[in-house]
Structures are given as structure tokens and as C-alpha cells.
Amino acid sequence: MFTKMKNIDTAFRYVRGFTMLVIAGCIVICCYALYKSFEAVALTQEKVYILANGKALEAFSSDRKDNVPVEAKDHVKTFHTFFFTLDPDDKVIKENITKALYLADDSAKRIYDDLKENGYYSGIISGNISQTIRIDSVSVSVKEYPYYFRCYARQDIIRTTSILKRNLITEGTLRNVSRSDNNPHGFLIERWVTLENKDIGVENRK
């Protein structure tokens, strides 16, 4: 009789141990499944689908801090492109300058006002002159805020008979502002100054 009870007690211990093991395994599996589910949901929320030319392109969102150097450089390039791309058309000049001034503070506005007062833009229109710019490089330091930048570029001033080539170096700082249609990168150029803008050569047009 005692042997039978001992066997029952041993069997009960085995069953209880096995049950506890199964329960622990279920808890581990459930926790892992929940973790992977939340991870999958988070990854899905970071995906963005962009429709371009009838094709759906997949893109991934990222934190702003990961893109600061790239966005800052593109902001500087965009500003310089708008500010220095001019054609002998008053409407084109106003449109480009207006777009550029959304990206910078009054330091750029003062330079524009000085050029306008000195007849620079009227001279472009009356002389049928076009001005283009090619950005060679932009360096941005994100170690300190506001971010310091320096822009290296080449200008082509296209006249009827010649093309004047100029070297352009500018610098300034960038501070964060709200994004908008007029300022998609969310930066504002401050303390913008021209360090160098000198002639480097003249090319005759054929």
C-alpha cells in the first residue's frame, strides 16, 4: 500500500514538473511572439510608399538627427541655386529671389537689397545676361548648434559674346525652423556672408 502511494506521489511530481515546464514554455513563446509583433508593426509604420510615374516606390522614414548633414547641405545648395540663378527676365528674377529668401534671414535680404539698389538686376535684364551657378561642395559642421556651413561654387555669367567665370565662397550658420512648402528642410540660413567672389577667367562664345 505504501509502495502504491509512493508511486502515485512520484507520478504527481513528474506531472507537476512537466506542467510547469509546458506553462513556462508557453509564456516564453507568447512573449517572443508579442515582441516580434510589435517590432513588425513599428517597421511597417516606418515604411512610406511614394507614387512616381505610375510606380509605387518604397521608402523608409528616419529620425531627423540621422539626416541633418544631408538635409543641411541640400538646403544650402537650394538657397544658392535660387539666389544666383538669374535670367534677363524680371519675373524669373523675382521668383528665384523670393524662393531663396524663404530659406535665409535678413542677412540675405540685405545683400539682395544692396544688389538691387546698385542696379545689378536691372543690368542683367538690359544686357540680356544670364547667370548660372554650380555648387562644387558644401561643408557642414553639426558638432555645435547653430550649424556652421561653408559653400564652394562656380558662377558663369553668360553674355552675348563671352562667359565670365567666377569663384564663389560663402559661409553662414543654420538653425532649425518649422518645415513648410516654402522651406521643406526646416532650416534657416543666418549670418550669410560672401568670403570670395572673384573672376577666374573669360571664355569667348562662338
Automatic annotation (TrEMBL):
UniProt KW keywords: Membrane, Transmembrane, Transmembrane helix
TM segment ranges: 12-35
Organism superkingdom: Bacteria
Descriptive protein name: Conjugative transposon protein TraK
Organism placement in taxonomy: Bacteria, Pseudomonadati, Bacteroidota, Flavobacteriia, Flavobacteriales
